[in-house]
Task: inverse folding
């Protein structure tokens, strides 16, 4: 993928991703890539959505783009590359780094340089939520409330410890509201609880929510955890950790090309770990329709996943 006659590599950096600054790492990465005969350009994001603009700008002249940040940054960069042959690499720098972990990327300049030189690529699926692209997961309900609490309290870099208090607050304060779910036109659930729509197998802290998740199968996975209170929430969490949730009481799991989720009361939404608003009365969207575009994004893979 990409124009093999071009040696231009754009590094897009989110300076607030993860638990610490990225300046020294990015300098090392740029020097390493330059030393291999590429022409690097480092761009730093300044606001939400900026990574998409940076990835899309004059992309036809690029050989590859390296996203340096977390899953939200990777999603934004991917959005700017859709419809092109430019390949994406990931220098994981966020809290979870789910896409990077799934494909074996490491924050190692030499390994990223090796991947560029080897140039082994794979095309993966991209999900769309009311037309907005995502790569990992969209969540409705409890986990979206946690993300909202983290975002509200955030002041710079974060670690997993910054999720402890938000999870505690959401656990005691969340109201489980009914969510209506359809998959390829088939009604799945209209019960209170949580809904996850995903493209890769794992979610936060490695939870294996999508047991059949595969970003190359042309399908999205939906997992509904029907839940009215905290005891059932804890049971669902334990079964998920043990990979016994699919098929257990109160859990509905499907794969589909089209999924719709809507609500009669306001319900929080997160997408790839970022706040994505609410659905329901008084919200911009009464519901969200998810679709998938097969093989829509090109990755330049690290050696272990060639």
Result:
């Amino acid at each position: 993928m990409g124009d093999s006659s071009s040696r231009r590599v754009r590094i897009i950096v989110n300076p607030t991703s993860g638990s610490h600054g990225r300046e020294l790492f990015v300098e090392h990465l740029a020097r390493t890539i330059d030393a291999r005969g590429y022409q690097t350009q480092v761009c730093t994001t300044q606001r939400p959505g900026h990574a998409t603009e940076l990835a899309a700008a004059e992309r036809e002249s690029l050989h590859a783009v390296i996203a340096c940040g977390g899953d939200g940054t990777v999603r934004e960069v991917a959005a700017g590359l859709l419809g092109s042959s430019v390949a994406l690499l990931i220098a994981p720098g966020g809290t979870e780094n789910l896409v990077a972990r799934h494909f074996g990327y490491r924050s190692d300049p030499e390994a990223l340089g090796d991947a560029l030189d080897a140039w082994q690529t794979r095309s993966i699926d991209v999900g769309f939520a009311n037309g907005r692209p995502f790569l990992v997961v969209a969540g409705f309900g409890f986990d979206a409330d946690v993300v909202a609490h983290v975002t509200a309290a955030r002041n710079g870099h974060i670690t997993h410890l910054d999720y402890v208090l938000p999870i505690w607050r959401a656990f005691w304060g969340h109201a489980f509201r009914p969510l209506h779910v359809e998959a390829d036109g088939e009604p799945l659930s209209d019960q209170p609880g949580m809904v996850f729509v995903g493209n890769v197998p794992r979610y936060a802290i490695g939870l294996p929510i999508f047991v059949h998740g595969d970003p190359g199968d042309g399908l999205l996975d939906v997992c509904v955890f029907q839940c009215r209170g905290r005891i059932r929430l804890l049971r669902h969490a334990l079964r998920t950790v043990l990979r016994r949730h699919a098929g257990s009481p109160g859990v509905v799991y499907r794969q589909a090309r089209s999924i719709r989720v809507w609500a009669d009361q306001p319900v929080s939404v997160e997408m790839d770990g970022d706040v994505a608003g609410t659905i329901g009365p008084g919200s911009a969207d009464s519901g969200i329709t998810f679709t998938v575009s097969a093989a829509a994004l090109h990755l330049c893979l690290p050696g272990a996943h060639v």
